[in-house]
Amino acid sequence: MSETTNLQQAAPNLIRTFDGVELPAAGLWHIPSGWASIELSVPRGFGPALRSRIRLKQGMIAIADDPAHSTAHLSLDAASVRTGNATIDDYLHDEVLNTRKCSTIPVHVASVAYSKGSSWAADGWITVRGASTPIELAISYDGVFRRGPAALFRAQATLPLRSLLPATGGLRGRLLAARTLRIDVELHAERIRATADRALVAQRREVAELATV
Question: Least enclosed by CB within 10 Å: which of 27, 56, 167, 182?
Answer without folding.
Answer: 167
